[in-house]
Amino acid sequence: MANFLVWVVWFFAAFACLASAVAVVSFSNPFYSALALIGNLASLAVLYLLLSGEFVAAGQVLVYGGAVMVMFLFVIAYLGDRTDQSPWSGGPSWQVVGAVLAGGAILAEICVVVGLKAGGFLEKPQHIGRSFGSPAELGRAFLTDHLLAFEITSIVLLVAAVGGVVLGAHARAVEPDARA
Amino acid sequence: MTTAAWVCLLLPLASAAVITVCGTLIPRRAAAYISTLSTFGAFAAAAVAFAEMWSKSPGHRAATTTSWTWLSAGPYHFGFTLLVDQLSIVMMLIVSGVGSLIVAYSVGYMDGEDEERRFFAYMSTFLFSMLLLVEGGNLLLLLAGWGMVGLSSYLLIGYYQERASAIAAAKKAFVMNAFGDATMALALFLLIQHTGALGYASVFAASPHGGAVANLIALGLLGGAVAKSAQLPLHTWLPDAMEGPTPVSALIHAATMVTAGVYLIVRCHPLFEKAYVIEDLAAGLGAATLLMAGLIALVQTDIKRVIAYSTMSQIGYMFVGAGLGAYPNAMFHLMTHAFFKALLFLAAGIAIHAVVGEQDIRKLAGVGKLMPFTKWVFLIGSLALVGIFPFAGFFSKDSIISSALDHGWYGDVIYAACLVGAFLTGIYAFRLFFIVFTGEPSAFTREHFHRHHGQEGPTSMLWTVGTLGVLSVIGGLLQFAPLWHPLTDWLAPVAAPIVEPTNAEEWITSAVAIAVGLAGIAVAWAIYGARRVAAPRALPALEKKFYWDELYDIVWYRTSDLLARGLYAFVELPLIGGSLAAVGVVFGTGSRELSLAQNGLVRSYALALASGLAVLTVVFLAVR
Amino acid sequence: MHGPDIQWYVVLSAILFATGALGVLLRRNPLIILLSVEIMLNAANLLLIAMSRLHGGEDGQIFAISVMAVAASEVVVGLGLIVAMGRRQVDLDVDKLRTLRG
Q: Does some domain include residue A33?
């Protein structure tokens, strides 16, 4: 029974994930695309929970959904919808064909590579304890095994903050550029 | 003996080096005296070597000395070897002896020239090269000396470098000699291939007998000899070489360099005897040359050119002698010819020097009346040339002619040719003498003749010419084949003759030759001396020197020119130039095509990234 | 608790990634392109966490958190650029930005 429940939840989450991803890519109004992405992030959080990554799921909702998407929505609201052509047209004629081919190839390749390299292992997930994926475990890992990644990430965040300030500042009078 | 040989060889080289290095630091006369002293020193050293050799027994007269291994390549080792034997000592004495007299003469002749130092440096270089050629102990050194005398000849012919004709003549001489050098080098390659060495003894012992290879070797050597000695068909450079100063003509183109071909044949006679067809060819070429040169000399109007054709003709006699196998006779004629030909050139030089450098015999006519000394020595030289008893040419030329009698029908033809040549010699030699040195002086001569401080010419010119005159008188007495023959005996261990005319043949030939020569003199006297008979009009073929120059112009120059133009138009411009241009075009169009990928569209760049990722994944999967 | 095996997550991640890639390649609005990049990043995160579950270690989750932080920073800078574009009255169309051409 529990197994069946898990499968049902999984299907719903997966379906929502895929549908929202397609929606992000296909809406012409960027506001709708951003909202669809929020749905994508939420379903992904559910999937993380199914994989026992509780902290990561929480972080996903808080950071991505709470901060990143809010920023997106602010900017989209600020700028408005400036595209005056249909979203899919434009560009060289071979762009669509090439893109579909490349995307399909990447999809097939990921499956093939993972299947070839790790096919046997995928059947047997490890047995995990209760504290797997808990904040305590992750914290300990960050501050012991992956301390360097932790520190560098903090520097990246600092740089991004500085960059955001610089890019957004009204430093000097802005004249309209010639059309590119 | 070998020390004396080294001294003899290196003194002229030292003087050339000193003159070159000191350059303008020494006065011009000093250069002249350095060169003259070095040449006399070389002659003294050669005389010392000769005396030492004389004191030894005939079997032990040869000596070789190697100073270091010059060339070492794989199994072949060639040393810097000098060979002093009976043959080379004869040549050394002639070269240094006559050479020192001519260099002393040119002290007076070249006085006042701006570039006197250059002249004497070149003369010393030439003497060194010629001595290297005759003293060389292996064919490699001979070839080295061969090439260097060609170089010295080029430098000296083109001495008056402001004159375009002199430069052209120098180039012509050098190119034709280079042809001979090439054939000689090919012969040397064959010798190395078949005998593995170039030293005389080993080559003569080991070279192949008969067959194509022996003929090719002999032919190659003959080619070099023909080019250097200006025989048919490589003779056209010698008359043009008269552009050089008169001492140069005397030394190089009469006494020494042009006789190097005869020396080569005599030295390498074992190789030629193994290829008797080529030896007969040498004799035939000599006979043809002596006739042709004699005919052309009948109509020349430049005094030096007449003497040049005479040289060509006399070397023809030497080739006949060497080709028939009468090696000592050929060397004897070489020696006497050096005396009287140098005498003729230098005496002509005195006349030229006295009449503001004029060389046309019609303008120089009658100068003999104003220059008696020159007239008499020129007469001595001409008589020696024609071969009248008791002057030098008589003794040497007749031995060669009589050697032709024992050679079958081929020898008889050559015999007849030589006698006709003697007749022609009489005519042209005395035509020259009667026009220039007898009769009333022409208007030109009267106007431009000037004495040199009361004498006919500078003292150095007069005593050297006088010495050569004495030698032309007594030099022939060295050998008179039927009665006494010290030279043949001297050379026998090295170059034994393979044909010995009988005494009867000698006497008969001598008589006929004298008669024929006197007949020629009589004809010349009738036309040019006493002016009883009008001079016949010159045939155009003779005046055009039998059209050899025109033939070579068409065969060599025009075809090369055509070939060069054709190659330029069809290979150089389209292929080579085109390929270079094509490289540029390829890069240009390639870049232009490739730059279409930089279209500025971000999305196409992203597509490139994605496609590249897809492809690379497959590649890495395949390669593992 | 059983559920789908890990390979289901792998396939799902692959499809998400491909969808994001298509979005990047085929849309002209830079905002949509950024959103598609977010989709791709999330697909990678999903794969990382699935593998972490597979191996039983937290390394994958650590990486996923770092990826999230970096993605956030990248969005900051990207949106800053787009705002700057908008301030200069430039059309929000990547096809119009082609002065850097060869």
A: yes
Within 8 A by CB and 6+ apart from B290, the residues are B312, B313, B314, B316, B317, B320, B417, B418, B421
- The answer to whether residue C81 sits within a structural domain is yes
In chain A, what residues touch B614 (CB-CB under 8 Å)? Answer: 102, 105-106, 109
Within-domain flag for C102: no
Which residue type sits at B387?
Answer: G
Sort out which chain A residues have CB atoms less than 8 A from C75's CB and list them. Answer: 68, 71-72
The tally of domains found in chain A comes to: 2
Q: Is the separation of the CB atoms in B188 and B198 below 8 Å?
A: yes
**Rounded distance, CA B492 to CA B549, Å?**
41
pLDDT tens profile B534-567:
777 777 777 778 888 888 888 888 999 999 999 9
pLDDT at residue A174 above 60? no
The answer to the question of residue A92 being in a domain is no
Overall average pLDDT of the B249-278 stretch:
88
Q: Which of B552, B517, B448 is nearest to B227 (CA)?
A: B552
Q: Do B601 and C25 touch (CB under 8 A)?
A: no
* C30 preceded by a cis bond (ω within 30 of 0): no
Kindly state the DSSP code that residue B67 receives in the 8-state scheme.
E
Q: Is residue C64 part of a domain?
A: yes
Asked if the structure places residue C30 within a domain, the reply is: yes
Reading the block at residue A169, the tokens are 């500042």
Question: ipTM score of the complex?
Answer: 0.90
| Sign, CA torsion B64/B65/B70/B73 | positive
Domain limits for position A5? 1-81
pLDDT tens per residue across span C21-37:
999 998 888 999 999 99
CB contact under 8 A, A95 and C52: no
| Cα A18 from Cα A39, distance rounded (Å) | 10
Stretch C28-54: mean pLDDT = 93
| pLDDT band (50, 70, 90) for residue A180 | very low
Q: How far apart are CA B295 and CA B287, in angstroms?
A: 13
Q: What is the pLDDT of residue B424?
A: 92
Domain presence at residue A98: no
C partners (3+ CB pairs within 8 A) are: A, B
Q: Are C64 and C57 in contact (CB under 8 A)?
A: no
CA atoms within 13 Å, Cβ hemisphere of A51: 35
Domain holding C66: CATH number? Answer: 1.10.287.3510
